[in-house]
Amino acid sequence: MHRTEVTKASDGSLLGDPGHTPLSKKEGVKWQRPRLSRQALMRCCLVKWILSSTAPQGSDSSDSELELSTVRHQPEGLDQLQAQTKFTKKELQSLYRGFKNECPTGLVDEDTFKLIYSQFFPQGDATTYAHFLFNAFDADGNGAIHFEDFVVGLSILLRGTVHEKLKWAFNLYDINKDGYITKEEMLAIMKSIYDMMGRHTYPILQEDAPAEHVERFFQKMDRNKDGVVTIEEFLETCQKDENIMSSMQLFENVI
Question: What is the pLDDT of residue 200?
Fold first, then answer.
């Protein structure tokens, strides 16, 4: 990920800023589902972290099935993971080798996430965002992420449908997992992203930018004005909003 690319492309939001010009209008291109390219894959912080420790592409990986049985928490098998995700067998093998190198126990914890994001976003404080992101991956809330959960989550974020990505984003914003997003929860997530992007973000972010952003989101999303956003309100609003849809291309910039 080129940091200059990220800071210019993203204003710190996860799903785009309704107050800004849609990406499609800026660049004269219509939003389209991201291509399943290796280049797109390599823009993801988590993927770059994993693959940084693997053998060069093209090396013999025929023993990967054997390797799976040597780890304490082994994946359910490449074929099943390939069916569950949108990664190729070769990509899964590369991701697995890197995961095993970085996490010999077969599990990744929250401190590891914090380390990863502090390396990729040294200009800001990524601690809180890494905490929220880890909790979104840690579906059962036991404080550790297995390889299977890790790649299934990555597959949704990088190659999922818009609907799948939005459902994942709702889960991220729903911090206490009660099925609703409050204004406070959305503000906490937004602020953590702005903090991570740091003071060098272009354009320069104002202190009150996260709060303004959340206000605009809530005005659009909270259809019945009851102070919370349901999954239905979230999906309906996001999928009808051109600004949000166009920004889905930038979704992986903070993943």
Answer: 58
172 and 233 co-located in one domain? yes
Q: DSSP 3-state assignment of 154?
A: helix
Does residue 153 share a domain with residue 169? no
- Phi first, then psi, for residue 229 (nearest 5°) are -110, 125
pLDDT digits (tens, 9 = 90+) for 140-192: 889 999 999 999 999 999 899 989 999 999 999 999 999 999 999 999 998 89
Instruction: Answer yes or no: is pLDDT of 139 > 70.
Output: yes
Q: How confident is the model at residue 26 (pLDDT cuts 50, 70, 90)?
A: very low
Q: By 3-state DSSP, what share of the chain in percent is helix, strand and coil, each rounded to 5?
A: 60, 5, 40
End-to-end CA gap in the chain: 11
Average pLDDT, integer, range 34-50: 68
Backbone angle region of 167, left / alpha / beta, with phi > 0 → left and psi within -120 to 50 → alpha: alpha
- Inter-CA distances, 133 with 55, 89, 125, 189, 198, Å: 27, 26, 14, 9, 18
Output b/e per residue, 40-68; b: 16+ Cβ within 10 A: ebebbbbbbbbbeebeeeeeebeebeeeb
* Last-in-domain residue among 120, 135, 160: 160
The alpha carbons of the chain give a radius of gyration, in whole angstroms, of: 18
Which of residues 160, 176, 203 is at a domain's end? 160
**Which DSSP letter does residue 254 get?**
G
204 within some domain: yes
Tokens 């204003």: give the residue: 11
Residue 5 has pLDDT above 70, yes or no: no
